[in-house]
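In response to the reviewer comment on reproducibility (Comment 2.3), we provide here a single inverse folding case reported in full, input and output, so that an independent group could reproduce the run without further information from us. The structure tokens appear first.
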């Protein structure tokens, strides 16, 4: 019997090239569907859609006794959505890189970052561009610059998402954010970084997209699919037919790839 998840939870999926099913699209609000339709790059659009599907179905897995229509996923740009329950609000953080999409959910402010390790990138220059002079020097002095850079970058991204970029620093070979608990994990060539407002073990949920499709289509009937049906049909139909073919690498490191090599410049992460 599968154990019940408890907060905080980190969830991650590997998205596929096939179209998102109408059942999954039906979980999105009008606002989320409209925003998804505005993305010009299919990969970026699918990252947006799957992140919302993942958050909603994770919320339902956390609280199986709450009806689907009583769980609201409320957009809060430029921050990640909030999960609004009948008796409280949960915070989320969204991260994506290429064909991986992940989210972190907790009762307090939290942040997550996911990056594909790519040692062919000019990491020494990236460090100078992304971090202040002191932090860049400390990261570049580490014996394993590749691992150190991606740990530092992930933690910095978390600090930005938590609205405290100035609280990020590097000390004693570790990335740190004042007032938060930072954890890093390097597995299968991916760096995963989480930052929590409290000290707590992070549960892991790694469903396959097929599982999410099954969850979306089964059990509690979605009333979201029935709201404003005439206005939604065109968007649902178009999004369900489109297959993402964009193979460009994801991740907010793209934001610094085209910047001049100027110490002190910082990268601007993508909105979730």
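Designed residues, in position order:
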């Amino acid at each position: 019997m599968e154990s019940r998840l408890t907060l905080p939870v980190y969830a991650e999926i590997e998205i596929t090239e096939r179209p998102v099913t109408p059942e999954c699209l039906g979980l999105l609000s009008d606002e989320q569907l409209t925003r998804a339709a505005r993305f010009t790059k299919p990969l970026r659009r699918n990252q947006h859609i799957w992140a919302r599907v993942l958050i909603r179905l994770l919320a339902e897995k956390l609280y199986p006794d709450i009806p689907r229509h009583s769980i609201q996923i409320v957009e809060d740009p430029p921050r990640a959505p909030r999960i609004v329950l009948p008796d409280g609000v949960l915070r989320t953080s969204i991260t994506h890189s290429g064909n991986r999409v992940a989210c972190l959910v907790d009762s307090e402010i939290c942040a997550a970052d996911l990056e594909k390790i790519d040692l062919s990138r000019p990491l020494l220059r990236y460090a100078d561009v992304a971090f202040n002079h002191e932090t860049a020097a400390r990261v570049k002095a580490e014996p394993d610059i590749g691992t150190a850079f991606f740990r530092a970058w992930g933690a910095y991204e978390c600090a930005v998402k938590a609205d405290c970029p100035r609280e990020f620093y590097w000390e004693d070979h570790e990335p740190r954010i004042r007032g938060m608990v930072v954890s890093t994990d390097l597995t299968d060539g991916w760096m995963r970084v989480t930052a929590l407002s409290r000290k707590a073990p992070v549960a892991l949920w790694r469903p396959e997209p097929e599982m999410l499709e099954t969850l979306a289509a089964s059990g509690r009937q979605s009333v979201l699919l029935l709201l404003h049906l005439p206005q939604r049909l065109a968007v649902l139909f178009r999004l369900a037919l489109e297959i993402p073919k964009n193979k460009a690498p994801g991740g907010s490191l793209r934001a610094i790839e085209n910047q001049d090599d100027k110490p002190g410049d910082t990268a601007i992460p993508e909105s979730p």
